[in-house]
Amino acid sequence: MALGDSYTAGVIQAAGDVFEVPRDGCERTDRSYPQVIDRDLGGLFDLTNISCGAATIANVTDAAQEPIGRNLPPISQDPDYPFPAVPPQSQAVDADTDVITVGVGGNTFGFAEILTRCQELGGGSDGEGTPCKDALGSGVRARLNKVSTEYDRMLAVLHERAPKAKIRAVGYPTIVPNDTTKCTYGDVTQFGNITRGDLAWLRTSVLEPLNKTIERSTTTQETAGFVDLYTSSRAHSVCDENKWVEGFITLPDQLSFVHPNAAGHRNAADHVEEALLNAISGS
Q1: What is the Cα–Cα distance from 168 to 155, expressed in whole angstroms?
Q2: Cα gap 118→91, rounded to integer Å
Q3: pLDDT 10s digits, 140-199
Q4: Which architecture does CATH list for 2-281?
Q5: What gap in Å lies between CA 43 and CA 83, rounded to an integer?
């Protein structure tokens, strides 16, 4: 059972084609890591992929979601929008579920909102300073606490619905490089107008702590474990030549808004496959 947000579902064109007809607005793509795993290990696992772009932790646990597809006005309009609501993802889990993967937390934290705000603030600073950190830094701890509380509850609900299932929480990959001089201010195929100072803050105070928060939550459930994608993707950030995560735009004109491409999903599949095989072998 594959649960999660857009980093699981795929969503962007660089992660393949949306394969569901009719579309439900969740934008699962055929090169996303659940679908890659299905092709690799379909003889061992019977995949149910109900991940959904823009999902929050609450949308996995107990809140219905109204998918947005690719409707992001004023940037893009989706001709099929609005889409009917989809039920909480946990409802698809039952006592017969053996293994659950779940990749979620960024939307509960508000990462897309912060990216947007950093872009706006950086546009007025000529690339200097840390305007986004200055404006939003004081609220990060509360956001992380919210993720922690909701993640703990989500894992408890999944365990209650599927008491024999092994749960593997999938973390987020490296997005910002350690060396932010690799990033070019104003380049929309990277981070647009986000300053290098704010990129460093996003890496050390947002993305790395978010992964650590998710990893810590897996210690609250005996059947849960964490799949680290961050370490293996360190040399493949948005600003690296061989990137596994796209920037705001993928050339020539595809909106990607900082999401993994097919290579990033291939890497995720490799690590999640290892975790799945270990789960069923008992190691």
Answers
A1: 10
A2: 36
A3: 999 999 999 999 999 999 999 999 999 999 999 999 999 999 999 999 999 999 999 999
A4: 3-Layer(aba) Sandwich (3.40)
A5: 33
